[in-house]
Hints:
- The chain is of the alpha/beta class.
- Helices cover 37% and strands 16% of the residues.
- Helix 1 (26-39) runs parallel beside helix 3 and helix 5 (147-165) runs parallel beside helix 6 (181-190).
- The radius of gyration is 17 Å and the shape is globular.
Amino acid sequence: MDPARFPVILTYHSISGGPPPLHVSPALFAEQMQWLQDHARVAPLHELATALLSRDRLPERTVVLTFDDGYRDFYFDAAPVLQRLNLPATIFVPTSFCGRAELASAKGGWRPQVTLLNWQQVNELAREGFEFGSHSISHPALTGLEHEQANHEIAGSKLELEQRTGHKVAYFAYPYGRWNSGIRELVQQHYSAACSTGAGVVMPDADPFVLPRVDAHYLRTPAALRSMFTARFLAYVATRRFIRRIRRQPEGIYARV
């Protein structure tokens, strides 16, 4: 089994000097992107999803870049690096938080700690070729919602993104990584594929609506980054997934709501 055969979807959040694991410094991010350009093949998410659905094999050493939550620092500190290196990326945004920060939602829900992209920036980035995906409307734990509420979050965010940008929105990322079979079915009705928070590389039999990813925090050292596409990397990611399960961190379950 050649580890280079299995695509890796990387997850980033904020490109800033904040604390790990959600923050990666701009300097480290630039180093990682340069390494990927030199040693991997960075592909858009739609290329991976299409190949998976059609059972086609992607070129070896394929990496997909995703950014959850749509932090505004993507515009200032990530986009210029990606544009300079000509690297594609997908940004998943919770639409009701665009341009806002430090907002408390009902029942102690999600609160972005820094300002998110505003709609002007979203549109500019979309025109420049960056792909936007949905991260729901208000970033709730979808598994705790009634069917109609969950469908509103899933479908409503897609509709607003498409109306705002003029581009089709085909991909979804589960808030908090929480999903179950009922939520997965709703997502499948509206999208072409979806990303989870389950740690792993993309195997040929991966579920397109529960795509595993690798948190960029796991690659914060040069040695860890250089290990990508090796057996050691596969073992490390498997260990991280095991630890997540022990800690009961969400990966989703095939259980009816």
